[in-house]
Amino acid sequence: MTSLELTLLYLLAAVLGVVLCRFLRLPAMLGYLVVGVVIGPNALALAQDSADVRHLGEFGVVFLMFVIGLEFNLSKLRAMRAHVFGLGLSQVVLTVVLGTIGSLLFAWAAPGFWRMSWQSALALSGALAMSSTAIVVKMMADRLEMDSEHGKRVMGVLLFQDLAVVPLLVLIPALGSPPEELLREIGYALLKASILIALLLVGGQRVMRWWLTMVARRKSEELFILNMLLITLGLAWLTELAGLSLALGAFIAGMLISETEFKHQVEADIRPFHDVLLGLFFITVGMLLDWRPVFERWPLVLLMVSVPVGFKLLLVTALAKVFGATTGVSLRTGLYLAQAGEFGFVLLTMAQQERLVPPTLINPILASMVISMLATPFIIQWSNRIVMKVVASEWLMQSLQMTTIARRSINANKHVIICGYGRCGQNLARMLEQENIPYIALDLDPDRVRQAAAAGDSVVFGDASRLQALIAAGLGRASALVITYLDVPGALKVLASARGHAPNVPVIVRTQDDFDLERLQQAGATEVVPETLESSLMLASHALALVGVPMRRVLRLVQAQRDARYNLLRGYFHGSDDDTLHEREQERLSTITLPSEAGALGRVLSHLRLAEEGVRVVSLRRSNGRIVDAASDPSLEDGDTLVLSGRPEPLAMAEEILLKG
Predict the structure, then answer these.
(1) I need a surface site. Which of 44, 349, 367, 459 has the fewest CB within 10 A?
(2) What are residue 520's phi and psi, to 5 degrees?
């Protein structure tokens, strides 16, 4: 198979795998793993595992570590130090220690079934300590649980796991050394890593800021992206030259940039390389898996799925309880972190390269990790039911929460329910108070709720996406429901609950832009307020006032646009920087000037039936500059310029009608 054919095969397989996962609402990473298994040498044998492909996959790990380094900052660690260095540190250390001891005991009890040296046991325990950041964070974001009690603990543990990968990347290659040189190699590796990191971090941030500033002043996007690739791969090469791993250098590069003002731009530029190459890495991992020995040794695979998952579940649950969480929160934290993680594959691959893992165990271990990750979305979806059945006090806790909400809203009538009490929700509450309109706000951030409630605000802890919380807040008696957070899936959940229980209560939804306006309206939103359109109205009103337009006329124009449901501003002229897959499907404005040979000349607008094609004529300007009211159904003349609004395909059809007749 030629290089081009192999590349096309990987791209086709990756696209099909990601499409399938998106259809099933599963993380794309699982699609890459399954695709690797299917096309690999141990299944359909469409592609062979080659050194070139593995090297490309290693670059995916490099960019993954670079992104982790970008997210590493002292303020974030300081804010979450109790969860990161308390729960997270305890989880990783105890998993490694207890996992190593348990693996050695199992090898002693069943030597024919499980042969393992202490170096191998330590390497595997490091992989066992990892959980899947990609799967868990996506699931929590979709379920609006990032600011919940268990969500904060899960994020703290995941953050420490990411940091713990760095010493493990140094330790595992040293574990592959001969026994008589082992301690010396470990000490030497740690010394080299310490010296290199110290040298880079002491003066590295100053040099990095100076260099990035100099590159940014050239105002070339291509140069900036090339520079990012040079820095990432250059520092990765430097650490490999020092006898350490490529991923360690990439992590340091990310850390150096994280403290500069270029962090967000770098993160946006590097994301495509990170996503594509990391997907290739997971395909290569899937290609390593041979399912035949797995089926032959299914008892071992079943054991290796159930024991690590059960062990991590019990350990994390117990530790969360020790660090002050309730039983329900502790169990949820354990359920979210019980699976294997993407860094587990990285560490396992490295251990295999160092010949620390017996070849007979590679396939069962890989299979168990893949199965645990495949099961994670379903475990998280069922976590609430599991907690309710296992923890008797959780019913009482949730009943108390609903009682607290109901007690606060029991005397309220014709009030406003505010979903989300961030800056937008708080500003709305202040204005409602000025007009003596009662309100009750629901928010999932316990610190914000505690401080706001102490200040006298009518806010309670509650999940607005749950119907029980809305009912307790008096949804049936409310005069309006306002969704203030910028999360369309979350808003759709609230809309479904509100429309099913109280269809007559108006619902106002805040969104970032107008991309999902029709979708939210169809779901039952009475009004949708896109921030981009409101900011456009404010900019226009200030500009008109500053150039001398009377304020009364400015207010009338702005109000007219609001009354027209933002019809004029919903479309906009697209440029090259808007040409993304998502943007190309959105409503836009298009300008067409009619030449002398245009087929539509002499015809009136209504006869062209552009509206039937889904296109609206926003304005018409004659060749002499005079604006003609399109609603008056004028006839078209040579040199007329029409501004049309619609989606790309209808606009193309309208252009053909205007030019060719």
Answers:
(1) 44
(2) -70, -40
Other C-beta atoms lying within 10 Å of the C-beta of residue 299: 10
List of long-range contacts for 573-576, beta carbons under 8 Å, 24+ apart: none
C-alpha–C-alpha distance, residues 408 and 402, integer Å:
10
| Nearest CA-CA partner of 567 in 587, 539, 544, 591 | 587
Level-2 CATH architecture, domain 3-389: Up-down Bundle (1.20)
CATH, range 576-660 = 3.30.70.1450
Which neighbouring-strand residues pair with 416?
A: 439, 480
Given this chain, do its domains 3-389 and 395-525 carry the same CATH topology?
A: no
CA distances from 6 to 16, 35, 424 (A): 15, 14, 51
pLDDT digits (tens, 9 = 90+) for 272-331: 777 777 777 778 777 777 777 777 778 888 888 899 999 999 999 999 999 988 888 889
- Residues 235, 250: Cα–Cα separation, whole Å: 6
Domain range list for the chain: 3-389, 395-525, 576-660
CATH class, domain 395-525, is alpha beta
Q: What is the 3-state secondary structure (H, E, C) of 2-50?
A: CHHHHHHHHHHHHHHHHHHHHHCCCCHHHHHHHHHHHHCCCCCCCCCCC
User: What is the distance between the alpha carbons of residues 452 and 408, in angstroms, rounded to a whole number?
Assistant: 14
- Cα–Cα distance for residue pair 125/99, rounded to 1 Å: 5
Taking the C-alpha atoms of residue 128 and residue 437, their distance in angstroms, rounded to an integer, is 54
**pTM exceeds cut of 0.85:** no
CB atoms within 10 A of CB 329: 23
